Known about the structure:
This protein has eleven helices and twelve strands. The chain is α/β, with parallel strands linked by helices. It folds into two domains: about 60 residues, Alpha-Beta Plaits (2-Layer Sandwich); about 270 residues, Aminopeptidase (3-Layer(aba) Sandwich), CATH 3.40.630. Strand 10, helix 8 and strand 11 form a beta-alpha-beta unit. The N and C termini lie far apart (about 40 Å). Bound molecules: zinc ion.
Amino acid sequence: MASAAATRLQAGWSRLKVPAVAxxxxxRLGLDLAEDVDRDAGTVTARLxxxxxxxxxxxxxRVLSDSGAVKEEAFRLPEGYTPVTGIQRRxxxxxxxxxxxxxxxxxxxxxxxxxxxxxxxxGPSRDARPVVVLLAGVHARELAPVEVALALGEHLTEAYGxxxxxxxxxxxREVWVVPLANPDGRLRVEAGDLYWRKNAxxxxxxxxxxxxxxxxxxxxxxxxxxxxxxxxRGPEVASEPxxxxxxxxxxxxxxxxxxxxxxxxxxxxxxxxxxxxxxxxESLFSRLARPVANRxxxxxxxxxxxxxxxxxxxxxxxxxxxxxLGLTVELDDQGFQPSFAQAMKDWEDWRWxxxxxxxxxxxxxxxxxxxxxxxxxLRLPAFGLPGLS
Length: 389
Ligand SMILES: [Zn+2]
């Protein structure tokens, strides 16, 4: 449950109690906020800079608990997680082993020139099929989403031609998975900057990094223009090559669904982020999200209502630009770098809901009101498909 996130604070972070009237002023302060907002309880975790405690007190916001400073010890990726170089190997090796159902596509390059790669997963038919997209690793410090994306791609590919349910899904859909949308940022985390969130853009004033999930062309001008802040929107709309890689992929593929996986809060969120209104697609989002949120005991609703005001995010942009249903998932972890076992539990939790979304995205109003149980793997005889043994 999301409330569990409150029970253990990461080093350098504080738990805040925020009165209802103080949320907007808090957002304007530009604090580094975790995504574990609880509007009902009025709490959120934040990383305070010198002087922030006084500013918070002035707004009537209390510091409930404080973990103290980050200890000066070398950060190591928790055991089990795949480092950036290993992610690239896993992406390519899957496609080499299963060329009929899995191909690697470079969708762009990062600020520092690293390839941003996507899996295209689909049955061998050439017929056009509805496309769905899953993104992970946009925020560098959020480790578990990347493992979920890797596990998803490997699961779908390896089950294709063996499990009739997965085979059917990839025969009627084209699934694109981007396991690591911000490779430069992730490398900074691996190098010891364990709470790095943004990309690695050097800025003229000496600051570094743009928040890639505030950089898209949707109410961008309302975003945070302070380069020192973790949610800095960037110097202009889609200024970052990582943003443009995702933008161009979505423009080209016209997906029905874009799922952007973050951590850590236990939420399923959808547009709009900019205010508390509802989009015309509200009932579609709700039909997709609520059965899954109910099953997993996640909270669900619009970004602005359940999280906080967000502009320039990929989900709101994909809906506005291409009519794609942009869902944001906040995995229910304790902190940004949970144990690898927790990341694998996230994957177990999400394996079936993601497949169900990919299936239902084309006609959400036909979706049952409760998530059906995960179907048992239905063995197919292993013949007639290339590359299978
Ligand atoms: Zn995030």
